[in-house]
Specification:
The chain is α/β, with parallel strands linked by helices. Helix content is 58%, strand content 11%. It is built from 24 helices and 11 strands. It has a 6-stranded parallel beta sheet with strand order 7-6-8-9-10-11, sandwiched between helices. Strands 1-2-3-5-4 form a 5-stranded mixed beta sheet, sandwiched between helices. 31% of the residues are buried.
C-alpha cells in the first residue's frame, strides 16, 4: 500500500500545515535575526535571506507531499529523480559571493541556519502534538530540512572564499600594473635619456683620444642593455597575471566534447600563479575524467565545474543533476568508472577526493589538492620530453643531444603513430617533439587528439617541411611551436625550455622565406572552406575509419560525424568519401598517406 500523508486533527495534511505556517516562520525568523544583531536581517540582505528561507521550507513540504524518487519522477514525466527538484549547485552557488559583497561573514549564515532550523522543527513539534504524524514522512521532512540548510551554508562559505580570492587576485594584478608603470615611467625614461646623452657625447668625441670613444661605446652598450632589461621587466609584470588559462582549458575540452546536454558551467576563482603547473595539470585530468563519466553515464541536464585556487590549496567540485548511483555498490562490483584513477591522482599530490552520489540525486566529486608556489627546486627540474620520429638514427641523435645538455630528460620515444597518443598518456611528458610524417597517423588528427586528451602537453613540431600554410594549420590546432630540422642544437634546446616556461607563447624557427605570404585560396577551395573539426573528420576518413570508429576517436556521436560529412561533401562539391579524400589531397589540405592504412582484422 502506498504511503500517504494523514490529515491533522484540525483538518489538512502536515505539508499543508507547514505551508500555512511559512509566513509566521519567516516573520519570526527576521525578528530573531534582528535580536541577535545578525546583518542578514538588514534591508540590503533580507530579501535574499527571505527567499532562501521560503525555498528551504518549500523543499520540506515537497518531502512531505511526494513519494520516493521514482514515484516523484513518474508523476511529472521527467524520469527517475527529476521530480524532487533538489536545489543544484548552480542555483545556490551565488549565495556566498552575494553575501561577501554585502559584507556578511559565513558565520552569520551558519547562525541564521541554526535559527531557521529551530523554527521549522518547532512547527513540526506542534503538529505532532495535535495528532501523531506519520513517522516516515516526519523523518523525510527533517532530512530535507537538514540537507537544504547545510547545502546553502556550504555554498555560502565556498562563494565567500571565492569572492575573497578574486578580490586578492584583482589587488595583485593592479599592484603589478602599478609597478610596471613606475618602472617604465621613472627608471625607463631616465635610462632612455642617458642613452641619448651618451650618443651625443660619442658624436662630439671625434677629436678625443681613441680610448675615450671606446669607453663611451661600452657605457652606451651597457645602458642599452639595461634599458632593454627594463622593457622586458615591465612587459613581464603586465603579462604575469595568467588567470583564466585553467578555465579556458576546461572550456576548450568541453567544446571539443561537443556536449548537447548537459549545460556545463565553469568557475575558476583565485590566482593561477599560486598553483604549480603539475598540480594544475593533474586537476585538468581529474576534471576531464569527471566530464567523460557525466557524458557517458549521468544523463544530466546541468553540470558545474568549480575550482577555488588559494595559496595553500585548490578546492572545488564537479557536480551534476543526473541519475546518480550507489557508490558502495559500484565500488563493490569493481566498476569504478574512473573513480580509482581520479582518487589515485589526488593522493599522489597529497590531496583527497570524495565522491557523493545516490540514485536519482546526481553526483558530486569534491577534491582538495595541496598547493604550493613553484620553488627554486621546481624551476631546476628537468623538462620531460618525448620523441616521435620514424627516422631511428635522427631520433637517437636528438635524444643524446638533449640529455647531454642537462635540464632535459627523454622519457619515451616512438617511430610509429599507432601508439603515440597512448604512450604520451602513459609517460606524461612536458614536451612532445613530433615529426610531420609519421607512419599510421595523420599529424592534424594527432595534434587534435593530444590537445583534447592532454591539454597541458606542449607539442613542438620538428620537420623538414616548411610550407607556411601547414605551419599555420598546426599552430591553429594547438601546436606550441614549429621547428625546421635544420635549426641549431641550441635553438632546439631553447625552444623546449621556452614552451614550458612561457605557456602563452609559440615558437617558430624556420627559414625566413618559408614565412612569405602565400596566395589566398580560391573561393570554394577545400582549405578555405573546411573547419578544423571537418579536417579532423576527413583525415580519419582518409585513414579508412568507419563513422562509428571516427565517433569513438573524437568522442562525438555518429550523427555528428554524418553531419560533418554532409558539410564536407557540400563544400568540396563531391558525393562520396573517396572523392572527398582525393579532392582534399589534391588541394593540399591532406597530406598523401605515408603507407596504406592497416586493417584491424575485425
Amino acid at each position: 500500500m502506498r504511503d500517504t500523508e494523514r490529515p491533522l486533527a484540525g483538518g489538512g495534511t502536515l505539508g499543508e500545515y507547514l505551508t500555512a505556517q511559512t509566513l509566521d516562520i519567516v516573520t519570526t525568523y527576521r525578528a530573531l535575526l534582528h535580536g541577535s544583531q545578525n546583518p542578514l536581517a538588514d534591508d540590503e540582505a533580507w530579501d535574499g535571506c527571505a527567499a532562501q528561507a521560503h525555498s528551504i521550507i518549500a523543499e520540506c513540504v515537497r518531502a512531505l507531499t511526494t513519494g520516493d524518487a521514482e514515484e516523484a519522477g513518474a508523476t511529472d514525466g521527467t524520469g527517475p529523480g527529476r521530480g524532487r527538484e533538489r536545489p543544484s549547485a548552480v542555483r545556490v552557488a551565488g549565495i556566498g559571493a552575494l553575501r561577501a559583497r554585502q559584507g556578511v561573514h559565513p558565520v552569520h549564515s551558519l547562525r541564521a541556519g541554526r535559527i531557521l532550523t529551530g523554527l521549522v522543527l518547532g512547527v513540526l513539534e506542534r503538529a505532532v502534538e495535535e495528532q501523531a504524524a506519520d513517522a516516515s514522512r516526519l523523518v523525510r521532512c527533517v532530512a530535507a530540512l537538514e540537507h537544504a540548510v547545510w547545502e546553502r551554508i556550504e555554498a555560502g562559505a565556498a562563494g565567500y572564499d571565492s569572492h575573497l580570492l578574486n578580490e586578492v587576485r584583482a589587488v595583485n594584478s593592479e599592484s603589478r600594473r602599478a609597478l610596471a608603470r613606475e618602472v617604465h615611467d621613472r627608471l625607463g625614461n631616465h635610462l632612455g635619456l642617458a642613452v641619448r646623452q651618451v650618443e651625443l657625447c660619442a658624436a662630439l668625441a671625434d677629436e678625443a683620444p681613441r680610448g675615450l670613444r671606446e669607453e663611451l661605446s661600452l657605457v652606451q652598450n651597457t645602458l642599452a642593455e639595461t634599458l632593454d632589461a627594463v622593457r622586458h621587466l615591465a612587459t613581464g609584470l603586465r603579462q604575469s597575471d595568467n588567470s583564466g588559462s585553467l578555465e579556458n582549458t576546461i572550456k576548450a575540452f568541453v567544446h571539443a566534447m561537443e556536449f548537447e546536454e548537459p549545460v556545463v558551467h565553469v568557475q575558476v576563482n583565485g590566482d593561477e600563479a599560486w598553483a604549480s603547473p603539475a598540480t594544475l595539470n593533474e586537476l585538468v585530468l581529474i576534471v576531464r575524467e569527471c566530464l567523460r563519466n557525466t557524458l557517458a553515464h549521468a544523463g544530466a541536464r546541468t553540470l558545474l565545474v568549480r575550482a577555488d585556487i588559494a595559496p595553500h590549496e585548490i578546492r572545488g567540485h564537479v557536480e551534476d543533476d543526473g541519475l546518480g548511483f550507489d557508490v558502495r555498490e559500484v565500488l563493490a562490483r569493481g566498476e569504478t568508472n574512473g573513480l580509482a584513477s581520479m582518487s589515485e591522482r589526488a593522493k599522489l599530490l597529497g590531496g583527497r577526493l570524495l565522491v557523493t552520489s545516490a540514485p536519482g540525486r546526481g553526483t558530486r566529486v569534491s577534491f582538495s589538492l595541496p598547493n604550493r608556489s613553484p620553488s627554486a627546486g621546481d624551476r631546476r627540474k628537468d623538462v620531460r620530453v618525448m620523441l616521435a620520429d620514424d627516422h631511428t638514427l635522427l631520433r637517437s641523435a636528438v635524444g643524446k643531444l638533449l640529455e647531454s645538455e642537462g635540464g632535459v630528460t627523454v622519457v619515451a620515444e616512438t617511430g610509429s603513430g599507432r601508439d603515440l597518443v597512448e604512450l604520451a598518456e602513459r609517460h606524461h611528458p612536458d614536451v612532445l617533439l613530433l615529426d610531420v610524417e609519421m607512419p599510421d597517423s595523420h599529424v592534424h588528427s594527432t595534434i587534435s587528439d593530444l590537445r583534447r586528451r592532454m591539454p597541458q602537453l606542449c607539442v613542438l613540431v620538428l620537420s623538414m617541411h616548411d610550407d607556411p600554410r601547414l605551419i599555420q594549420e598546426l599552430l591553429n590546432l594547438g601546436a606550441r611551436g614549429y621547428l625546421h630540422k635544420g635549426v641549431s642544437n641550441q635553438a632546439l634546446i631553447s625552444a623546449i625550455h621556452d614552451v614550458v616556461a612561457h605557456p602563452t607563447q609559440v615558437t617558430v624557427a624556420v627559414p625566413s622565406q618559408s614565412l612569405a605570404p602565400t596566395p589566398a585560396p580560391a573561393p570554394g577551395s577545400a582549405s578555405g572552406a573546411l573547419s578544423v573539426r571537418e579536417v579532423e573528420v576527413l583525415a580519419l576518413v582518409a585513414a579508412a575509419l568507419t563513422n562509428r570508429q571516427i565517433a569513438h576517436r573524437l568522442v562525438i556521436t555518429e550523427g555528428t560525424v554524418k553531419r560533418h560529412l554532409r558539410n564536407i561533401f557540400r563544400k568540396l562539391g563531391v558525393t562520396s568519401r573517396i572523392e572527398a579524400v582525393n579532392r582534399a589531397t589534391a588541394t593540399g589540405l591532406l597530406s598523401p598517406p605515408a603507407q596504406s592504412p592497416r586493417r584491424t582484422g575485425r
